[in-house]
Design a protein that fits this description.
The structure is a single chain. By secondary structure, the chain is an alpha+beta fold. It has a domain of about 60 residues: Multidrug-efflux Transporter Regulator, Chain: A, Domain 2, CATH 1.10.1660. About 40% of the residues lie in helices and about 10% in strands. The chain is built from 3 helices and 3 strands. Strands 1-3-2 form a 3-stranded antiparallel sheet. Helix 1 packs across helix 2. The longest helix is centred in the last third of the chain and has 18 residues. The chain is elongated, with a radius of gyration of 17 Å. About 10% of the residues are buried.
């Protein structure tokens, strides 16, 4: 039986291609709790875990790096530009 939200694809060629929630937190500069919140809820399309080993969920590093890049680009694309207020306009 496949666990919900866990992908079962062929294993990566190198173990370094897999990252844990703690690794992801370090990569993104986030607390572990925030990574788990995004992972469990699928916030902003956070990638599903690739699988688990010894009770630890693992993600493909490439999936996380791609997600971080695309999410950052979406946020920047929708954020108001700095300095777009007209003079005298209140924020």
């Amino acid at each position: 039986m496949q666990q919900k939200g866990v992908m079962h694809t062929p294993p990566p060629a190198e173990p370094a291609e897999l990252v844990s929630a703690t690794d992801i937190a370090r990569m993104l500069g986030w607390p572990n709790k925030k990574v788990w919140s995004y992972a469990v809820r699928g916030i902003r399309g956070f990638p599903p875990a690739w699988g688990a080993w010894d009770g630890t969920r693992l993600w493909l590093r490439a999936d996380i790096e791609r997600w971080a890049r695309e999410t950052r680009e979406r946020i920047l694309a929708t954020a108001p530009s700095v300095g777009t207020e007209t003079e005298g306009e209140e924020r």
